[in-house]
Amino acid sequence: MFLFKEIANDNYSLSTGLNYGWKHIFTLYIIVSILRILFAVLGGIDLDPEEAQYWLWSKYPDWSYYSKPPLIAYINGFTSSIFGSFTWSVRLNAIIVGSVIGLSTYYIIDKIYNSKKLAFFISAGLLLLPAYHYISMFFTTDVLVAFFWLLTCYFFWKAIKYNHLKYWILSGLAIGIGLMAKYSLLFFIPFSFIFLLFKRKDLLKQKGYYISLIIAIVFFSPILIWNINHDMVGLFHVSNLAGIGRKFTSFNKSITYLFEFFAGQLLLNLPFLFLFFFWKKYKLGSYLKADFEQFIILKTIFIISIFTCIAFIKRVQINWLIFCYIPLYIILLKAILKSGILKNKIVKTYITFSSVLLLLLLLQPVFETFTPSFSKIIPAKIDPFGKLVDWKGLANFVQKEINGKCDEKNYIIVSDKYQIASQLTFYTAGQPKTYCLPFSGRRMNQFDIWGIPYSEIEQKQVVLIKNSPLELDTEINSLIDQNSLIYSTTYTILYKEKLIKTYYIYLLSKMPELSSSKLISKF
Length: 523
Fold this sequence. Notes:
With about 525 residues, this protein is of the alpha/beta class. The chain has a domain at about 390-520. It has 25 helices and 5 strands. The protein has helices at about 1-10, 20-40, 50-55, 70-85, 85-115, 115-125, 130-135, 140-160, 165-180, 190-200, 210-230, 235-240, 250-270, 275-280, 290-310, 325-340, 345-360, 365-370, 370-375, 390-405, 420-425, 445-450, 455, 475-480, 515-520, and strands at about 410-415, 435, 460-465, 485-495, 500-510. It comes from Lutibacter oceani.
């Protein structure tokens, strides 16, 4: 209860028994980082397929890749060269960047509000939020774009407030490097122009803003050139995600997409749900009227509006908006701390309950390993960790089974899913090359850009791994000479004593002759 009393004390200009300086916030995030590293090492879960894919990219350095810019591959390549390629070494990147987000939040709040206590508790408050834990534990592009979006917001705000060249340069650097992480930073450019047009039109007549854009373009240029040289595949991918070119299906489906979108965002931000019920009583809106808070709110509304339009024509994944939430979390936590709402017993209970619920969710793999009965609190079907278990077991099984069927282990591994192919590369001993079988029933991915060297592998046997039976997949089945089928088996994955996945494994005497350039849609 001391913690709630300390937080609820709204005299943030004074220290009340604790020092809220850099030493304490560093200590907090070092402790959190150590716990996350232990979780990565002992938690019992493997890489997410997207994590495995980004790691695989690092083995083939390039200016960009099919679906994302190259920064995540560069970082993976750097850490792998130091620590080797392990689950924990990949996730170490997310842990470090996530901690840097927390420390950057402390720095930004201290600079804007001139209060180390406020900065400490807002930064620490991020640890209560599911979205922050997700990006800080799994190394996807979400953690990188969230970090650079936060920096861009801060430096752009400082630039429009003081109009100093250094802030325009820093703003341009944040946008430019952020664009090397994910295309989402492109959203900031139209927003910034519209914001200046209505709020600070005078800055559009000066050079600072345009210098920041030029810097961003310089960083983005290699990615743009790469896309031009590869038939703009990145543009096609982003267009597909945005729903461009899709036909309107039905009003009922659009309503379903919109409901899923807003329900998903509410679920992601569940710890803030209590604000709806106490907004008027504690006049929370009065703490969000300053210029910085209004800037963050307008920026967030801009992003949500864009994704609402997308959700009208296609399904929007729950994590797509995480990158824009950190600045919003900052101002909401500031309003919560300043308003005195934490003195309310109902709010205390809700925060405690949501924190315990978050902890139970995060520790599900640990419970499954050490106390299986306790892990069943969250059913396997809805536990997001279910898709992250036993990839290593699958790779070991494939290698053990097939080695006994092939002379001198002279075979290659292919799949119809890039996710499976990426995971099998990472977890198979020796981390061999794998390939993604091209066919018209899927969209393009990075494996298609790399291609399949038929002349090098035509004499090798092929291990095909699917997540559905071959006989039910008429297209792929038609591409394979049935006389080439040597052997087939299955591998089942259990989680919390429930069957969650079955993989179908086929040994073929040869690789089907396919032309990926003619069969695969860029969409």
